[in-house]
Structure formats: structure tokens, C-alpha cells
Known about the structure:
- The protein is mostly beta strands.
- The protein has a domain at 2-46 and 75-88.
- It has no helices and 6 strands.
- The chain starts with a strand and ends in a 19-residue tail after the last strand.
- Strands 1, 2, 3, 4, 5 and 6 form a 6-stranded antiparallel beta sheet that branches.
- The model has no long low-confidence stretch (mean pLDDT 77).
Amino acid sequence: MCAIAFVPVDEPSLGSSSTxxxxxxxxxxxxxQDGLKPGKYRVSITAQAVYDRKTNKPVTAETLEGQxxxxxxxxxxxxxxxxxxxxxxxxxxxxxxxxxxxxIQLP
Length: 107
């Protein structure tokens, strides 16, 4: 499970705009039709994996049996402690790339 959220800096009460994210290719796409409105956004990146308690191997929806645990893959400086901000400018191709190194620490 992966997500990238863009929260308006000047109006955080408006909520965030989320994305779909492909963890294999590293590409993401905004999930709403009109894109982001011009302005500054705080960016939050989250990703989790689900592991089987007995085998410590990743599980899928097909193999999930309730004996699982979740592992956060992205360090806090990219999500709950994020200070990443980008400004969306009208009429420009706004591309925001992130270099995130996932670290898996199993219990």
C-alpha cells in the first residue's frame, strides 16, 4: 500500500489530494481529473507492506490469513515529519520527483 498526498500549505483545511502509486516502477499519478490548483503543497509519502507472522514473508490478499503485521517502508521525514513542499505553477509542466530509499525492519 503506497500513497502520496499533496496538502495545500495555505489552506490545509481543504484536505489533501492523493495519488495512485506504482511501487515497482516508482511512478505516480494524481487521482483526480483537473490536477492540483496553483499554490504551495506539503507532500507526504507513505508505503507499507504486510508480512506473515510465521514466515516473515510478504503476503498478498490471496494469502492473508489474519496472522499478519504491517511494516512502514518510508522513513518519517517523508510522511508524518515531512517538510517537503512544492509549488504548482499555472501553465507549467509540474513534475515532482522524490528519491526515497525504503528500509524494511522486521520485528
